[in-house]
């Protein structure tokens, strides 16, 4: 039997399959699950359990950033525009969000 807290977690938790690897994306703000106003700027943590990741990545998500102000003359498929897979996964829920890695080197 599954515990009720596993079906309805107190904190936001997403199990992800990114680039063929299982990982966890989670937050520490329980109101992120129930208050849409909390989705403006918030923090998530990412852990994939691979040996190259020695610490949990602390990400700041901004869903109201001005992504449309990026230089339109740049090729969006160019190598300088390549985004980490975890950022693309986050954007499946929050389209257009910017992700700050807070000093951690983004990994793909």
UniProtKB/TrEMBL annotation:
Q: Which Pfam family name is an example for this entry? A: MINDY-3_4_CD
Extract the ranges annotated as region (Disordered): 64-85
Q: What is its EC number?
A: 3.4.19.12
User: Is Nucleus there in the keyword field?
Assistant: no
**Keyword Hydrolase among record annotations:** yes
Which branch of life, at top level?
A: Eukaryota
Q: Domain Deubiquitinating enzyme MINDY-3/4 conserved: where?
A: 2-103
What keywords tag this UniProt record? Hydrolase, Protease, Thiol protease, Ubl conjugation pathway
Question: Which InterPro entries is this protein grouped with?
Answer: MINDY-3/4_CD (IPR025257), MINY3/4 (IPR039785)
* Reaction(s) this enzyme catalyzes, per UniProt: Thiol-dependent hydrolysis of ester, thioester, amide, peptide and isopeptide bonds formed by the C-terminal Gly of ubiquitin (a 76-residue protein attached to proteins as an intracellular targeting signal)
Q: Name one GO biological process term.
A: proteolysis
* Any one GO molecular-function label of the UniProt entry: cysteine-type deubiquitinase activity
The family note in this entry says: Belongs to the MINDY deubiquitinase family. FAM188 subfamily.
Function according to Swiss-Prot or TrEMBL: Hydrolase that can remove 'Lys-48'-linked conjugated ubiquitin from proteins.
Record protein name field: Ubiquitin carboxyl-terminal hydrolase MINDY
State which gene encodes it: Mindy4b_0
């Amino acid at each position: 039997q599954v515990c009720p807290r596993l079906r309805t977690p107190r904190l936001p938790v997403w199990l992800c399959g990114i680039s063929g690897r299982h990982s966890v994306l989670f937050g520490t703000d329980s109101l992120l699950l129930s208050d849409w106003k909390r989705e403006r700027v918030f923090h998530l943590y990412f852990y994939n359990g691979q040996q190259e990741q020695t610490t949990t990545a602390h990400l700041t998500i901004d869903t109201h950033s001005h992504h449309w102000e990026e230089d339109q003359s740049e090729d969006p498929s160019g190598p300088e525009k390549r985004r980490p897979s975890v950022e693309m996964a986050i954007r499946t829920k929050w389209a257009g969000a910017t992700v700050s890695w807070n000093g951690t080197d983004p990994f793909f």
